[in-house]
Design goal:
Blueprint: H1 2-10, E1 60-68, E2 77-84, E3 93-99, E4 109-115, E5 122-129, E6 132-139, E7 152-161, E8 164-174
Antiparallel strand pairs: 1-2, 2-3, 3-4, 5-6, 6-7, 7-8
Amino acid sequence: MAAVIAGAGLLQPSQATEATAGPVNPTDPAQSARPANGARAAAPDAHAAAYPLDCKGAPQAVTATAEGDLDGDGRPETVAAVRCDAGSGTPPHALYVLAQDAAKDARPRVVATLLEAGRKQTVTEVTVRDGRVTATLLGYSSPEVPRYSPDTKQLAKWRWTGGKFRQELTDSSATGV
């Protein structure tokens, strides 16, 4: 049994992101913003960004990321699920979009907040495909629900439209998660 568990740890599925979704196509306009050497522009490093999340002195933790070109400019953005690292309990997440300025040594910057921590939801999965951000959100149907046992699950989707992110769809179901 230990060998099966160890083997499963080595065989992790690759994260489905637009940035790794297939071969490079030089005629694709979405891939045209490459450096002269043909390399792909690097997505912003989620661990190098400063987030507008007040953790009252506790450190912040990036728990999930996804990369892809969200605004069609040919350069990848990073979506980061961030929470306070409280050491216990289930602190809520915020979901941020990061961009990287072209200047050398520029830090990634937050360009949009998709989910505020005040919504008291937990992000369990985030992907970027075809310019759309999809996140699985766990939450609570009422204040009486214990904070260690979320009872709602939502699939939320956002797309860059008209100069800002718009939430396209949220499917909800009240389930024992």
